Amino acid sequence: MMKKTNKLMSSSFLVSLSHSITGITCCPPPASFQFHSHFLLFSTNKSNPNPKPHFPYSSNPTHANLQQLLLEKSKTGFDKLDDALAVFDKMLHMKPLLPVINFNQLLAALVKMKEHSVAVSLFRDMCVKGVPVDIVTISTVINCFCHLNRVDYAFSLLAGTIKRGFHPDVVTYTTLIRGLISQDNPAEAQLLFTNLIRYKLIQPDVVTYTTIINGLCKRAHASTAVTLFRYMDKKGCKPNTVTYSTLIDCLCKLRSVDQALDLLHEMTKKGIHPDVITYSSLIQGLCDFNRWQDVNQLLSEMNTRNISPNVRTFNILVDAYGKEGMINDAEDVIEFMIQRGQHPDVVTYSALMDGYCLQGEVDKALAVLETTMKKRGIVPDIRTYNILINGYCKKLKVDRAIDLFQQMALVGLTPTIETYNTILKGFFHTGRHVDARKFFKEKMMLNKALTLDNFTCSILLHGLCQNRFVVEALSFFDTMLSAGLIPNICIYSTLIDGLSKNGHLEKARSLFDNLPLKGLRPDVKTYTMMIQAYCHDGLLNDANELFLKMEANGCLPNDVTYNTLIRGFFHNKKYNEAGVLIDEMCARGFSADASTASALLDLLKSQEQNPALLALRKKFLTYY
């Protein structure tokens, strides 16, 4: 809680500060949340609007039982929303009224259930019914507004509470800062935090700093998080294990593993002990780079410090070994974790199954589901089935994938858009375009609970164009636009490629030229597709002009782009131009691919004495 200070705690100052401290103009809340005196009937105890928490349990058995229930549910949440609403209704009709702490526990239970809008609605009812509220209530509701992405309402509530004599505490302000960060406003959050310290409105402790650092990390604002981390240390607030672990995890996820390792060395040097969470984050980061020697070193260090790997640590290793095709090592890890008393879970076995599928051993993955997991009583989840369905589709066994798809409903699982996309792609990949179109229309388009994404559209457009259903692809594209789905550059690239390969170059060109009007920039793949289309139609000048234009627009060509244009020059007998481009390609560290080399050999066989071709052969021998 905040202590009373001199003029800094005056209502007028705090109200002004609540509006100006971040530079944000608070928007007025909706009618149901207007802060009129007849609506926000806060506690009238003006001498102490922030009473110390107390736990008055009634001698009335009904009251006492309900209070015990609220204490428990505040930590876990209710099983059903209707149960929470029934308890609230009962509380409103109790005489005498239960203390505010019990109403706060009910709101906390709703937050645990992620029913933030319901919590706000009950807060409104409390105010209308004259139920006293305290700063804990206010902080809870501010937290709900932040989760609902309405930080403007949170600041409006802050202003209203300050006017009525409440003094926001460090929890309240930390919640607001987290809300700003969650809406990707780190600069405003930093300004708020700086001003709170400047005006001595809060005395941040390690929990406050760590909470804000965690919020920044979740939004991938690593540099700001590191700056705040150094600032807290400079101000004499020593970071703890949680602070270091939070920052280490963020850096590892952003692939700055060496910087994360430096933090590990720093914390141990300062006598701050890393825990299993710290090491697990680092092991994940190192596995992402296949730095197995460093992984083994960390595992050895954990053993020296008597830190036992937990299920998450082992799961990271199983997943990493599986992705690298080291299935035996993944199985050894599972065996070892069982010996250490750790119980493999659905994540463990799903990772193992994924490893099998990546090696094409889908039947072994299925055996894990049907034998090992069943024997251990481990219930498969959506990811388990998605892994198997993807595995069978890649093995061109789509019917087996469909069997698993149908099995999901029998075990109470609802397929995700990823499941549907995988099967749709599998049908097209096996040439079963009729089944693919039928599956899309009957299972996906008619499924109101399913939200199609850009990946769905890309699969369908590619499949239709590949099977020469260009008119149908364009019709679907128009339908997609009418439905409000905003295509990304991948969608446009797919359609441009399909149109150009099916004799609709002008339509492809029109789509490409209009990309800037859609707020999109062609990537290297899009440029390469258009260059290939121009080359195919013998429009070498257009192809070369676009090649020069892409670099001027800040998109550098890659090896595929160079090889595509070089082959275009070959096919159109522009051998000197091809030679110049080969020099440029090699100078940039790229090399000719198999198709380019094969095209040159074919030309040499048919035109053995062509001087330009002989010069190209010599150039190839020089470079390769």
What does this structure look like?
With 624 residues, this protein is mostly helical. 68% of the residues lie in helices and 0% in strands. The chain contains 33 helices and no strands. Helix 21 (398-410) packs antiparallel against helix 22.
Shape: globular
Helix content: 55-70%
Q: What share of residues are in beta strands? A: under 5%
- N-C termini distance: 73 Å
Mean pLDDT: 88
**Main β-sheet: number of strands, strand sense, barrel status?**
none
- The DSSP helix count reads 33
Radius of gyration: 32 Å
- How would you classify the helix and strand content by structural class? mainly alpha
Q: What's the total count of β strands?
A: 0
Poorly predicted ranges (pLDDT <50, ≥5 residues)?
1-48, 50-57
Family: Belongs to the PPR family. P subfamily.
InterPro entries: PPR_rpt, TPR-like_helical_dom_sf
PPR repeats: 134-168, 205-239, 240-274, 275-309, 310-344, 345-380, 381-415, 453-487, 488-522, 523-557, 558-592
Keywords: Repeat, Signal
Question: What's a concise summary of this model?
Answer:
It is built from 33 helices and no strands. It is mainly alpha-helical.
Q: What structural keywords apply?
A:
624 residues, mainly alpha, disordered N terminus, TPR-like_helical_dom_sf, signal, PPR_rpt, repeat, ATP binding,nucleic acid binding,helicase
Element layout with pairings:
Elements: H1 11-20, H2 61-76, H3 81-92, H4 100-112, H5 116-129, H6 135-147, H7 151-163, H8 170-182, H9 186-198, H10 206-218, H11 222-234, H12 241-253, H13 257-269, H14 276-288, H15 292-304, H16 311-323, H17 327-339, H18 346-358, H19 362-376, H20 382-394, H21 398-410, H22 417-429, H23 433-445, H24 454-466, H25 470-482, H26 489-501, H27 505-513, H28 524-536, H29 540-552, H30 559-571, H31 575-587, H32 594-606, H33 611-623
Helix pairs in contact: 1-7, 2-4, 3-4, 4-5, 4-6, 5-6, 6-7, 6-8, 8-9, 8-10, 10-11, 10-12, 11-12, 12-13, 12-14, 13-14, 14-15, 14-16, 16-17, 16-18, 17-18, 18-19, 18-20, 19-20, 20-21, 20-22, 21-22, 22-23, 22-24, 24-25, 24-26, 26-27, 26-28, 27-28, 28-29, 28-30, 29-30, 30-31, 30-32, 31-33
